[in-house]
């Protein structure tokens, strides 16, 4: 079980998180982001059948953060892989923030404010794609949302997923001279968790000590 959760976030989005709650994108959003940025997150989000490249529930909203275990802490300091900062901040550490939550306090607050939709939460299971179990016909709506390729294991991700479909964003694409409606993305889901600022602590990314491979957050 995690001891802490850390949310990597740009400074312009910080106030929303601390005062209003969770800004949750559909799982497919992260696949589209990887296509655009070339490195962030996972184009196989929601992969249900590796053999047939079939996907499931990619329209479900998810909120992601980094799980910190006891063995990640030494001398009251958390050691963080530099790839996390590259993924979420690119070269803009000046605009980067880390929001630290005590895991138990955060989870209790989330469950106390949960809305009418089913929710799933937990740490991501990392394994090679070829070992993904086919879950396309599984009765568990969230099983394929909580696994990622082992190459992302440095993210040590904790995730919340909500069982409701995000609203589609539809556009047009011209094919052979004809325009067709195509799915572009999904609108985000806003999960109300006011006053998260009262159970968190904020750190500036550019103020953490960096040794060339890792960043160190002093508790």
Helix vs. strand class: alpha+beta
- Helical coverage, percent range: 10-25%
Distance between the termini: 19 Å
Proportion of strand residues? 35-45%
The largest sheet is: 8 strands, antiparallel
- The beta-strand count equals 18
Radius of gyration: 18 Å
Could you tell me the mean pLDDT?
87
The DSSP helix count reads 4
Low-confidence stretches: none
Outline: globular
Instruction: Sketch the topology as an H/E string, one letter per element.
Output: EHEHEEEEEHEHEEEEEEEEEE
Question: TL;DR of this structure?
Answer:
The protein has 219 residues and is α+β, with helices and mostly antiparallel strands. The protein has four helices and 18 strands.
Structure description:
With 219 residues, the chain is of the alpha+beta class. It is 16% helix and 40% strand. The chain has four helices and 18 strands. Strands 1, 2, 5, 8, 9, 12, 15 and 16 form an eight-stranded antiparallel β-sheet that branches. A hairpin with a 4-residue loop joins strand 3 and strand 4. The chain is globular.
Key words describing this protein structure:
four-stranded antiparallel sheet, 16% helix, alpha+beta, 219 residues
Give the topology, please.
Elements lengths: L3 E7 L3 H6 L1 E6 H11 L9 E3 L4 E2 L5 E8 L4 E2 L2 E5 H8 L6 E7 H10 L6 E5 L1 E2 L20 E2 L8 E6 L5 E8 L2 E9 L2 E4 L7 E5 L4 E2 L3 E5 L1
Parallel strand pairs: 10-11
Antiparallel strand pairs: 1-5, 1-8, 2-5, 2-15, 3-4, 5-12, 6-7, 7-18, 8-16, 9-12, 13-14, 17-18
